[in-house]
């Protein structure tokens, strides 16, 4: 006889009771979830309705969709309810189908789908039942987890839904097509295709590829005539444009230099009143217009859209028109959010205007697909899309609606966001189906590693253009300025700073402009930069008279004196060095915590170089510019280089005046009245590069030795070799051969001159030696005149007789033998710098 185990019965009862409670709890949760879902769904469906429909109609459609979806879900829930009360031994057909759908999303849309899924969680995702676990528990846990995750990631969900709410659009699309018997789309087929979400691969054989033109850029004469140094300087002035990759065209400064159509020109300058190009436009437009793949890194709102839009329109216009059987597109712009996609689409239509040959369609999630399909069927030269929706459309009707076959231009706007939001798989898929020789452009505000590796895979020998407006000066240098209205006022300020400096140096601090800044407690040195030898001598005297000791060095002083002064400056604590900018190049005295720029710099390169004498390694420092109110270019450079917080911390009246001066210079530049000095380039520009390196890798800085003879403009073979880095050593730089002459003049004085033989030097050395910038620099530094003489004879050729022009040489003339010697020294130095720079450039060009 079977005995009843009372304990077992009561256990079962309590278990059942527990289950009943759980079921009640779950039902409550489900009801809440259902209500939330219904609300979300209503919002989405209402927003997703066709813009073209009247509001009442929209609402009616939305309501119908809500009801239909709710009916479906109710059925599903009833089934689920049943399943929760009996332990299912195997999955039902329905659950299988739903699981398939969820898998499909995971397969194709990864992060995006994962987040989108949350909207429908509880309905779509049927948990796996484990024999050991209570299915209700499993489901509750999954619901809880989903709820938690949807709470914790609500921000993301919001973003993603905003981005490309695929779940809604999937349902919407299916519903939209119900009853559309005339349409080819059959719901089950669409669902199947969407389930697979595989874009049809196209095999492009090189022979079959239709040729298309990418390069539309013809450099204008004004742009061609810019020297490398001018280009470098221009890039610095255009918010510090940094280029990587080879063969980047020079930046342009005028719309007229781009060969745009009259219509576009009228729109840009006449209607939109875009008087000048933004920095990214200046550099990206010629680069993209010449057919190159480009990575453009620039902050938001910097005018990136036009940078790719104008070249895109140009390319599309030159293409064979879409045939009757082709829907396009020719150009594809991918954007992460529907708002951005719409904005871009508006911009496209602004530029295409009434031109019927370029039609643009915007395809994003969250808007009715039917309208997009109808528009696409008519043919679209340009499609602006979010990646998810674009894949949806590509997979429709067996890929017959839209094909990637004729796409020759792909743009990814806000690429960092596209990747942040998990669109990489979709983009990769899209890119795989586009012809391999397409032009591809990627714009972004940042360039994370993920994007970098994608770019490496997809782009073909790209040019990267980075606009780094405030990264010109080492971030550890605090920049200040003082506008003075006379030379006397300026000198007074210098005295104040120097006195204050000396006083505060003793206390480990210095006071500038009434503000106290930290300085090295043990030693805090200062450098005063002046623009010429004469000013250096004059200020030196005036400082001595004012009781301030400043060790002066400039190229005109005898070598021994320079060396001695520099040694004293290094040895003595809280000392001051007074020097010309040129002589301080390469100067590495870590204790320098204050730089005073007494004569406003003329170039960005000079500014970066002079400010770079402080804040060595990981130290910080201050750079103060004393600016006369007519030194407009100096003001322009300062406004570009100073960071916002530095300007904010300055006297508002002074800032106002600085901006006025800068604006005056800028408008003068536009009118051709002013231009930034060509600068002396060479080392200064190399220094910018090393500065950038310095920020990236300060360790390198530590490896550098302290000042040596080379810094004094005196070169011995030993010191030169010590400075030779890898690329430098690969550049062979022969010594310059020269003859020195001394001749009496008719006035009884003596003239010195030298002939420097350059004809037989390697071409690069000859170029460097005869460059205008080199000659101007030497003239400026030494007061000697220097001119190109003779003519070039190729190897093996010589002048036949004395009547023939002599071989190419440089004639240096001066009042003093010392000046001539110095000129030759500086010439050698410039040649060396130029050759090293060229070697570095060619080395870099093979690196990208
Ligand atoms: N050269 C120009 N001069 C004046 N305004 C311009 C110029 N180029 C573009 N703009 C305007 O500046 C604004 C920002 O441009 P745009 O949207 O192209 O920037 P963006 O870098 O793409 O920004 P985001 O990344 O936020 O989309 C727009 O209103 C645009 O019309």
Give a written overview of the molecule.
Residues 88-99 have a biased composition (Basic residues). Belongs to the DEAD box helicase family. DDX46/PRP5 subfamily. It catalyses: ATP + H2O = ADP + phosphate + H(+). It is an enzyme of class 3 (hydrolase). There is one protein chain. With 848 residues, the chain is α/β, with parallel strands linked by helices. The chain has 32 helices and 20 strands. It has 5 domains: 2-157, no CATH class; 165-196, no CATH class; 221-467, P-loop containing nucleotide triphosphate hydrolases (Rossmann fold, 3-Layer(aba) Sandwich), CATH 3.40.50; 478-670, Rossmann fold; 737-845, 2-Layer Sandwich (Ribosomal Protein S8, Chain: A, domain 1), CATH 3.30.1370.10. It has an 8-stranded mixed beta sheet with strand order 1-8-2-7-6-3-5-4, with helices on both faces. The longest helix is centred in the N-terminal third of the chain and has 43 residues, at 6-48. The radius of gyration is 36 Å and the shape is globular. The structure holds adenosine-5'-triphosphate. Adenosine-5'-triphosphate is lined by residues 274, 277-278, 281, 300-306, 414.
């Amino acid at each position: 006889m079977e005995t009843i185990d009372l304990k077992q019965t009561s256990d079962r009862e309590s278990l059942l009771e527990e289950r009943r409670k759980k079921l009640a709890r779950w039902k409550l949760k489900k009801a809440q979830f259902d209500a939330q879902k219904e609300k979300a769904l209503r919002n989405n469906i209402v927003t997703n309705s066709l813009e073209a429909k009247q509001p009442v109609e929209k609402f009616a459609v939305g309501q119908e969709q809500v009801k239909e979806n709710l009916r479906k879900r109710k059925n599903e829930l009833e089934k689920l309810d049943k399943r929760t009360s009996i332990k299912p031994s195997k999955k039902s057909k329905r659950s299988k189908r739903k699981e398939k759908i969820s898998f499909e999303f995971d397969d194709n849309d990864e992060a995006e789908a994962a987040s989108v899924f949350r909207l429908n969680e509880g309905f779509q995702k049927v948990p796996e039942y484990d024999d050991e676990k209570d299915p209700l528990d499993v489901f509750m846990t999954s619901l809880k987890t989903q709820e938690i995750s949807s709470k914790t990631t609500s921000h993301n969900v919001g973003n993603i839904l905003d981005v490309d709410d695929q779940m809604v659009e999937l349902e919407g699309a299916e519903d939209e097509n119900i009853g559309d018997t005339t349409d080819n789309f059959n719901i089950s087929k669409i669902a199947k295709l969407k389930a697979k979400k595989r874009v049809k691969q196209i095999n492009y054989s090189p022979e079959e590829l239709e040729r298309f033109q990418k390069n539309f850029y013809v450099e204008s004469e004004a742009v061609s005539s810019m020297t490398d140094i001018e280009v470098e300087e221009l890039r610095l002035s255009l918010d510090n444009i940094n280029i990587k990759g080879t063969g980047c065209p020079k930046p342009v400064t005028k719309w007229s230099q781009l060969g745009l159509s009259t219509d576009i020109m009228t729109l840009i300058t006449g209607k939109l009143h875009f008087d000048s190009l933004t920095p990214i436009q200046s550099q990206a437009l010629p680069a993209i217009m010449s057919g190159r793949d480009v990575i453009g890194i620039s902050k938001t709102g910097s005018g990136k859209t036009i940078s790719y839009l104008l070249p895109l329109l140009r390319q599309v216009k030159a293409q064979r028109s879409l045939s009757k059987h082709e829907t396009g597109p020719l150009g594809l712009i991918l954007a992460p959010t529907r708002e951005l996609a719409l904005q871009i689409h508006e911009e496209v239509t602004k530029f295409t205007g009434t031109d019927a040959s370029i039609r643009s369609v915007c395809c994003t999630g969250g808007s009715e697909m039917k309208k997009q399909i109808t528009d696409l069927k008519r043919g679209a030269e340009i499609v602006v899309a979010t990646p998810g929706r674009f894949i949806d459309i590509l997979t429709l009707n067996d890929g017959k609606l839209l094909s990637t076959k004729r796409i020759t231009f792909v743009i990814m706007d806000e690429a960092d966001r596209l990747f942040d939001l998990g669109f990489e798989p979709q983009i990769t898929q899209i890119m795989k189906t586009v012809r391999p020789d397409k032009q591809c452009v990627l714009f972004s505000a940042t360039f994370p590693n993920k994007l970098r590796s994608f770019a490496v895979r997809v782009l073909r020998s790209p040019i990267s253009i980075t606009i780094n407006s405030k990264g010109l000066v080492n971030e550890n240098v605090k920049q200040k300025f003082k506008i003075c209205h006379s030379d006397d006022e300026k000198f007074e300020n210098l005295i104040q700073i120097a006195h204050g400096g000396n006083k505060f140096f003793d206390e480990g601090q210095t006071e500038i402009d009434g503000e106290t800044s930290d300085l090295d407690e043990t030693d805090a040195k200062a450098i005063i930069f002046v623009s010429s030898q004469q000013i250096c001598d004059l200020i030196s005297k005036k400082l001595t008279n004012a009781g301030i000791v400043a060790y002066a060095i400039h190229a005109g002083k005898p070598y021994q004196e320079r060396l001695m002064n520099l040694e004293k400056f290094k040895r003595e604590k809280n000392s001051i060095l007074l020097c010309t900018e040129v002589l301080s190049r390469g100067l590495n005295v870590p204790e320098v915590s204050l730089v005073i720029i007494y004569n406003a710099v003329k170039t960005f390169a000079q500014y970066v170089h002079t400010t770079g004498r402080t804040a060595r390694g990981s130290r910080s420092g201050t750079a103060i510019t004393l600016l006369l109110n007519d030194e407009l270019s100096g003001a322009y450079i300062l406004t570009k280089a100073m960071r916002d917080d530095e300007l904010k911390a300055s006297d508002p009246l002074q800032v106002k005046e600085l901006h006025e001066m800068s604006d005056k210079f800028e408008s003068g530049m536009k009118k051709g009245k002013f231009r930034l000095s060509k600068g002396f380039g060479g080392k200064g520009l190399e220094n910018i590069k090393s500065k950038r390196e310095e920020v990236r890798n300060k360790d390198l800085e530590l490896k550098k030795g302290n000042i040596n003879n080379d810094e004094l403009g005196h070169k011995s073979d030993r010191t030169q070799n010590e400075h030779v880095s890898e690329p430098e050593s690969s550049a062979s730089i022969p010594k310059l051969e020269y003859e020195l002459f001394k001749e009496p003049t008719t006035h009884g004085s003596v003239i010195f001159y030298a002939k420097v033989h350059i004809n037989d030097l390697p071409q690069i050395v000859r170029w460097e030696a005869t460059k205008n910038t080199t000659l101007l620099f030497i003239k400026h530094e030494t007061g000697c005149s220097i001119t190109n003489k003779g003519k070039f004879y190729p190897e093996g050729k010589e002048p036949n007789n004395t009547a023939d022009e002599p071989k190419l040489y440089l004639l240096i003339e001066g009042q003093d033998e010392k000046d001539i010697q110095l000129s030759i020294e500086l010439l050698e130095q410039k040649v060396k710098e130029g050759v090293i720079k060229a070697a570095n450039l060619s080395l870099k060009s093979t690196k990208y």
